[in-house]
Known about the structure:
The complex is a heterodimer of chains A (138) and B (186).
Chain A: H1 4-19, H2 25-32, H3 38-59, H4 81-97, H5 101-109, H6 116-132
Chain B: H1 3-6, H2 11-29, H3 37-46, H4 58-82, H5 93-101, H6 124-144, H7 148-157, H8 161-185
Helix pairs in contact in B: 3-4, 7-8
Amino acid sequence: MAHLKYLVTGLVFGFILTKAEVISWFRIQEMFRFHDIHMYGVIGSAVFIGIISIQIIKRFNVKDIHGEDIRIAPKDSTQMKRYVIGGLIFGFGWALTGACPGPLFALLGSGITIFIVPILAALAGTWTYGAFREKLPH
Amino acid sequence: MTEWLSQPWPWYIAGPLVGLMVPWLLYIGNKPLGISSSLRHTCAACFPGRIAFFQYDWKSEGLWNLIFVVGVFIGGFLGGSLFSNPDPIALSATTVTELRGLGISDFSGFVPSDFFSWSGLTTMPGFIMLVIGGFFVGFGARYAGGCTSGHAISGISNLQLASLVAAIAFFAGGLIVTHFIYPFIF
């Protein structure tokens, strides 16, 4: 029951992704072909609101619902190869499937059953990364 | 009254709502917005093998994230099926023209059923997009330490240089596939 709030939040997130049409392979192609502002508007305004929100949280020392300090773990910026190489590979997948991980689950939920295939393939990709992690440059 | 539920939302409504997910998750449970970690947690729960990367307490670290993803799935059902938009996506005319040139004929849904369907899976482009694309999404997200939500939204919101680098690489990878690979696989 303690996790019900995450179920509801995820539901709202999935619903927004659907209404924003960012789960659409067509919209992703439109973005990568620079034909429309839609995707740039969604991502840009999301980041804008995100930056302002986190600044407010930090400046005013906002607590979470349990009264504890909000802690945001920083990303490790000492490693850079992983972000470039891993990022490029992710980008290949993003353009091929037309979906990043969130949309994959929303698309499956919307009833397009074929999306179980890229989800299983993504699990295989995750597992393969885990298996070969030590051998990859980071 | 329920019209707004089935209509697509403009970017200036949907984008800020996506952005608000970041402080909301921090507020309700000190959790960072992210989706692709759920793939790692699933590996850790179901087939960890003897791989060090999957030896951790996935329940305490990731159960919330797996439940969040189940929510995304249900949200997809509500938004994409129960309250689905009956009209095709209002794409730019140039995009439609270019994609027709690649052999896509069905513009009615979220994805081209020409390739994103069980029959499409057996075509060469369909297989590459669904299977190889999916593999790259999972492999690349974990290699880069996050996906679009974790890096491009959540990480950049926290002004992380690593996330900015990752997001630029995501975009560069997508441009390469769209402009240099797609012309060859269709």
